[in-house]
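User: Study the fold:
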Amino acid sequence: MGTSHSGSNNSTPPGGSAPSGSSVPGPAGGPPPGASGPSPSGEIAKKQRILLVEDEPDLVRGLTDVLEFEGFDVCNHMEGRPGVREMRERGADLVILDLMLPDINGYQVCEEIRTFNQVVPIIILTARGQELDKIRGLEAGADDYVTKPFSIGELLARIKAILRRLGRTQGKELETIRIGSCEINLKKHTLTRARKTQTLTFYEVELLKMLFERADQPVSRDEILDKIWGIEAYPTNRTVDNFVVKLRKKLEENQHHPHHILTVYGYGYKLVP
């Protein structure tokens, strides 16, 4: 049965260990970073809301404590369907989603959320370390993934990095670019080719924007990781490669013989519009 959580009253310390990750101590004294407080105008800032869909009670308690200590409003559900309903009815600024759930799996949850919200960042938690499982999660609409056991510090860094970057991109005017026969709406997160429209995730859009701005120039994996994910988010070269695989499926006529996103061996990628 799904449960909604707001305000933790358990004994796990904010900096305590979560079962699937290492402990990260919170700052000593004072309000946690990111906590709501008075703005210069005297108004109380609205907390960013995180939806946690995870069925391991100890992990839920540990993550909830840490996230609330960091100033987030946390709602959790232990099954997929209530999580989808929560997202549809109340929304969230970010979703943390386990792949192995009692009712429907995380891939299905991700796909259902993407039918009505294409922009919210989704980070999947998985005990499966195989590359194909990660790619399947990205294809279902996830923006990022963390493999159990994970560091709480790593997860927090990924959350903050994606929310910070999302905040920088919001409010800009509508932008549309063309790559080959595809039209990409950078604000609506859609790609249209041959009258078929597909949704793009946050990081897919950011990667396309960066490559498009540097069209016909090789861009290194390290630069992509630094400017899009941020070094503090603990990404790897495979992170970039997985997103390129996913984008080629949507963008190219033949993903195995790409004409637009080209590999520069030993270096990175180049976009040919």
